[in-house]
């Protein structure tokens, strides 16, 4: 974990929103050297006060403009429902506050472009909170791919699915940016586009919920010499692993890959073996077998405390202190590219 330079003042965060992910982020900030919590904004005065008291945050404020004008805040984390991300991010940037915006950063690629334009114009940092990209296991996978450990990527196979019964929550409300692709699909799409870039062609299928949002989305992304098959949904509990097959082996981020702590490497021999085939179903017996030492398969553990949100916070702090307006690991152009793929699937 990065250490704070001697004599450097604390980096103080403000949080917009009081939901589950906001609380997780606040708790994980305690794991970041030099980070502090300064204030929380909620449209409900009572919710803001309760959140601040529960997480030892000094101030709560129900007026967004007054919250953003607080000179003590070095950056804000926007953790509100999806449809509020863009207006709140634009307000934060206009107020000169670096913004970490919960995924999906916006509902369309055009909206990401608006955030990027204002961020660049004002020289104020903005980034999508795609925290999975910053996990130690995911960073290790990128390094190993860059070092040629699995050769050239030929195929990506990933699933992220958690059963949810249709209800009146934000997950199924089109006006609030609901749907499986925006809630779950963005994780697999973001990692895939980081590794392979924008696809040449997109094939997609969706199963709709009665409200009109996607209950399930399946994507097939075509690249020169490679294909990515990605699936997400509220219709089942999935295997939730991310497999990267190359010309000289494979890597798999183990379930649930969005907060992966284990990375498995397969040699070409292991890939061909029915006993250790990485794309086999995630049954109970398979889960037990996956933990056994088998020839051609090597497992690496990347444990960390907390939920894993601290790593993106560290990246933001480093970028802001360096005067950058975006982060190399999660550039706004790649956030826009993910939403273009989802838009193509809807079309």
Provide a concise account of the structure shown:
Helices cover 33% and strands 24% of the residues. By secondary structure, the protein is α/β, with parallel strands linked by helices.
How would you describe this protein?
The chain has 11 helices and 14 strands. The protein has helices at 20-29, 45-54, 64-68, 85-94, 109-122, 136-146, 180-196, 268-272, 284-290, 310-321, 332-346; strands at 11-16, 35-41, 59-61, 75-78, 99-102, 126-129, 153-161, 201-208, 214-223, 226-233, 242-246, 249-253, 262-266, 297-301. The model has no long low-confidence stretch (mean pLDDT 94). It has 347 residues and is an alpha/beta fold. The termini are far apart. The chain has 2 domains: 11-130 and 309-325, Rossmann fold; 136-303, Dihydrodipicolinate Reductase, domain 2, CATH 3.30.360.10. β8 (201-208) and β9 (214-223) form a beta hairpin. Strands 8-9-10-7-11-12-13-14 form an 8-stranded mixed beta sheet. A 6-stranded parallel beta sheet has the order 3-2-1-4-5-6, sandwiched between helices. The longest helix is centred in the middle third of the chain and has 17 residues, at 180-196.
